[in-house]
Amino acid sequence: MEPNPKLLKRRPSNLKEWQEGLEELLASGMEDFEEKLFSFLCDHNHLVSIDRFKNLLDETGLREMDFRLRETMRKFRAVLERQLTDEHELRGLVDKDTFIDCVSDNIVVISKALTSQFVIPEFKTFTDIIDTIYETCKDNDSGLPAQYIPQLARVDPSHWGVSICTIDGQRYDLGETSTPFCMQSVVKPLNYALTLNDLSSEVVHQYVGQEPSGRSFNELTLDYQHKPHNPMINAGAIVTAGLLKKGLVIADRFDYPPKEGEPDMRYTKQAMDQFKRLSGQEHIAFNNSVYLSERATADRNFALGYYMRENKCFPPEADLVETLEFYFQLCSVEITAESGAVIAATLANGGICPTTGDRVLDSDAVRNTLSLMHSCGMYDYSGQFAFKVGLPAKSGVAGGVMLVVPNLMGIFTWSPPLDQWGNSSRGVQFCEELVGNFNFHNYDNLRHTSRKYDPRGRAVESKAQDVVNLLFSAYNGDVTAMRRYALLGMDMSLADYDGRTALHLASAEGHEPIVRFLLEKCNVSSYLRDRWGFTPYHDAKRFKHDAVSEVLLEHMKTTAPKDAPFSIQDIDKGLHNMHL
Fold first, then answer.
1. Which of 90, 200, 473, 530 is most buried as measured by Cβ atoms within 10 A of its Cβ?
2. Whole-angstrom Cα distance, residue 161 to residue 399?
């Protein structure tokens, strides 16, 4: 039975909902999917390679450590450990019962991945374009790392990494994505979002405005109401830091581990733990050397603080020095491009972390944060960035750029050399190239505008497109794509105008794995003829692919129709005038 598309398209927000969805899906007849999947993946010995299955999931963007695959991967590890102690078992291979037992707990997410139900169904096509953009930007050597903070000035300018996380938890990394660096100004929208989440927009904006400043990010200036212009410049970020957990002392506001017997909820409300929740519990740390360097070069920020205190910008109970210390600590929080991409994806997903299902922020806080990121997030380049890229983003002088594509994905780039506005040179170029290739700009979908590639769309949209995709995958020897089309229920015998099928093309190109898959797993007839009377066997013989022709001939011998008006000898001679 085919998967119920209404159930597969739901996006559960937490583990409990995944489990409930699994029960509902199994009740609808989804239990047959495991057997169907096994039949597509097993070899001639009726065994499935665990590594092959993991690689198949990886190509859809799913990582082995994804929480939605936790039970499946735990069972696979147990199988591998058992096989190490049993010399009679084939290592890394599992039979049907074992495979079904391993995948059944997480069959919902597995079926979504393998039947192209994720938000980016053709993930490989998408990442191929990302590869090209990454390499193009890699050649950009303009700019220098931030010079006014000694610890940042010493960073190797050759660092370049891009990490992507979709709202369905699909992941992709290029370059140096696991190297830690400090958030610096990238932390500003997160502080603002957490403060909105705790208080409200009305309370927060009593102290900070919502307009672009049109001035330098660290300039001593206020708006017409004597408030900082917005939370994305230093003045506004300092005031926002004064509002975040303002009832606690500075140490407790940053990180408050519970004492013995105290409930964990007291800890989960503090800044560091909130960052960890936003990142799906991935790398979040504190860089003390950057913090000390930041504090030692903070004359401008202290001047801003005293100027704002003079203008009564802070809440009455705020301590100026503690607020500035807290702000420096927040800027010195350390992430990687990988954990930053998950944070961006959490914002893209309306405040729910896609890799854990944890709701960290409410939707209003996310909406307001993205609005200000869009208009004020890229220093003095914000207007041009909104014009060219049309997406919310925030940069930091450590070289990070956090880009949010709402309802689709989060992207984090890291490259220390900065342009004249203080944004990462490679990061800005990547964002502009991205929108040049994909229809991600807010106004790319207006009527009568030129169309760019939309990775959210299904490649398989019509029978004509089915034929194109099927034949193209067969021509290129893409077994993974062929399996996906088969799992989607596509007719694997589809032919083009000339009667050419995937089996014909795979035979002509000598792709034996494709040929075997179509014959053995999809039951495609080896007797199919094109308009000139050629069978796949004739194509293999013509182009001298002897191994493929042997496979086809053997299959034709074992599946010959009883009333066929020709003999196997006729086929083997390569006669073209056969009448089926």
1. 473
2. 10
Q: What distance lies between CA 570 and its chain's CA centroid?
A: 54
pLDDT tens digit at each of 580 positions of the chain: 333 343 333 444 444 454 444 444 444 444 578 888 888 888 888 899 999 899 889 989 999 888 899 999 999 999 999 888 877 667 889 999 999 999 988 988 898 888 888 999 889 989 999 999 999 999 999 999 988 888 888 999 999 999 999 999 999 999 999 999 999 999 999 999 999 988 888 999 999 988 876 566 666 677 778 888 889 988 889 999 888 866 655 555 555 444 444 434 333 347 888 999 999 999 999 988 888 888 888 888 899 888 888 888 888 888 888 889 889 989 999 999 999 999 999 999 999 999 988 999 999 999 999 999 999 999 999 999 999 999 999 999 999 999 999 999 999 999 999 999 999 999 999 999 999 999 999 888 776 666 788 888 754 455 667 788 888 889 998 888 888 788 777 888 888 888 899 999 999 999 999 999 999 888 898 888 888 888 899 999 989 999 999 999 888 888 776 555 455 555 555 544 443 3
E-state strands within 159-213 = 161-166, 171-175, 181-182
Domain count, the chain: 3
**CA distances from residue 365 to 91, 135, 339, 374 in whole angstroms, order as listed:** 50, 36, 20, 14
Q: Which of 34, 32, 58 is nearest to 48 (CA)?
A: 34
* 156 and 284 fall within a common domain: yes
| Run of H or E residues at 570 | helix 568-572
Cβ partners under 8 Å of residue 132, min gap 6: none
Q: Is 544 left (phi over 0), alpha (psi -120 to 50) or beta?
A: left
Can you say whether the dihedral through the CA atoms of 182, 188, 189, 194 is positive or negative? positive
Distance, CA of 248 to CA of 270 (rounded, Å): 10
Structural tokens at position 93: 């291979």
Looking at the domain assignment, is residue 313 inside a domain? yes
Contacts by 529-534 with C-beta closer than 8 Å and gap 24+? 529/499, 529/578, 529/580, 530/495, 530/498, 530/499, 530/500, 530/501, 530/504, 531/498, 531/499, 532/498, 532/576, 533/576, 533/577, 533/578, 534/504, 534/576
Spatial contact of 186 and 394, defined as CB atoms under 8 Å apart: yes
Last residue of a domain, one of 89, 114, 139: 114
Number of H helices, E strands in the chain: 29, 10
Rounded Cα–Cα distance for residues 397 and 415 (Å): 10
104 and 149, same domain (yes or no) = no
Is 447 among the domain residues? no
Smallest CA-to-CA distance from 501 within 482, 521, 520 is with 482
| Matching residue, tokens 């597509």 | 40
Its domain, for residue 516, covers 463-572
What is the rounded distance in angstroms from the CA atom of residue 240 to the CA atom of residue 300? 17
